[in-house]
Amino acid sequence: MIVSVVSQKGGVGKSSISAALIRALIKRGKRVCAIDLDVQGSLTHLIAPTIDATRTTRWLAGVPVDPVVISSNLSCFGATAKLNSLEQDYVKVPGGANVLQRRLARMKRNFDVVVIDTAAGLGGWVVAAMYAADHIVSPCLLEPLSLDALKGFVKVRNQVVDASGHMVKTWIVPNRFDRRIRGQTHILQALIGMNLGEVTPPIPTCSAVNNAMSALNFVDALSLGRAEAYFDHLSLQLLQANNAVNSTLVSKDSTIVNV
Ligand SMILES: Nc1ncnc2c1ncn2[C@@H]1O[C@H](COP(=O)(O)OP(=O)(O)OP(=O)(O)O)[C@@H](O)[C@H]1O
Ligand SMILES: [Mg+2]
Fold first, then answer.
1. Ligand 1 lined by 175 (C-beta under 6 Å)
2. Which of 168, 235, 247, 259 has a 20 to 30 Å separation from 177 between CA atoms?
3. How far is CA 206 from the centre of its chain?
4. Low-confidence ranges of the chain (pLDDT < 70)
5. CB of 157 closer than 6 angstroms to any ligand 1 atom
């Protein structure tokens, strides 16, 4: 299974959610390969700060090398400074959008899950990661600009699905939900109500990415095919919990929250 973590907007939690997913998968005994396709290297810093990334450069160039082994169940292709020039050479050429899919074909046998963290935006490597994905996870902050960016992401995602011809399950993950922040509940409801076509409605917030339970539940939903039930159940829980907390806060001090 290949999971690509993608968003048009920066700083929404792609690398944090990638790392949380990786931790949860390893905890479940899955063999995981992490791939950092962001030259910024946040995921690499989080999981394998001292990794030698020259192997990534060679792999992306088509040499059949294995990722670096980090621990018994985790291997990694760390971020390489050459991502931009490699994008020019291998992605931005005719037919280049599926380059990652081709590179990953061999690795699919060696790992249960490949988690790909991408740079913000919808550039060449990001589109290639969407082409390769079985699941796309797109974190989103509960603010108007994030919702606008989501529409751009969904448009490109739909183009990728049309061009690649295979169905890619897509998850919008509201991140950093804070029920004390004015208006976030309304934005969450707007997000749930948005017509995003085939894209799965948003799953509940990962308000604490390091919360092992939320990461584990999320992994269950991804890997055990219980996606719809998971969303229905937890979104309801989220909204109910949110309403309960809001009314408590409002009754204690009406200036804290008024949503
Ligand atoms: N749920 C969360 N709770 C608290 N802090 C968070 C949460 N998610 C992300 N952060 C923090 O927000 C910042 C941005 O997160 P992160 O680097 O994961 O985002 P990103 O989408 O990968 O950013 P970029 O677009 O730059 O790659 C980091 O400082 C991270 O620690
Ligand atoms: Mg990042």
1. yes
2. 168
3. 12
4. 24, 177-180, 197-259
5. no
Pocket test for ligand 1, best of 9, 16, 43 (most atoms within 8 A of CB): 16
Q: Which atom of ligand 1 is found nearest the CA of 118?
A: 27
SS3 readout for 13-60: CHHHHHHHHHHHHHHCCCCEEEEEECCCCHHHHHHCCCCCCHHHHHHH
CA 52 – ligand 1 centroid, Å: 24
- Please name the residue that has the structure tokens 């890619």: 168
Tens of pLDDT, residues 6-56: 999 999 889 987 887 787 678 778 899 999 999 999 999 999 999 999 999
211 lines ligand 1 (CB under 6 A): no
Token representation of residue 11:
């700083």
pLDDT (0 to 100) of residue 138: 87
Please tell me the residue having the least CA distance from ligand 1 atom 13. Answer: 11
Residue 164: both structure tokens together: 């690649």
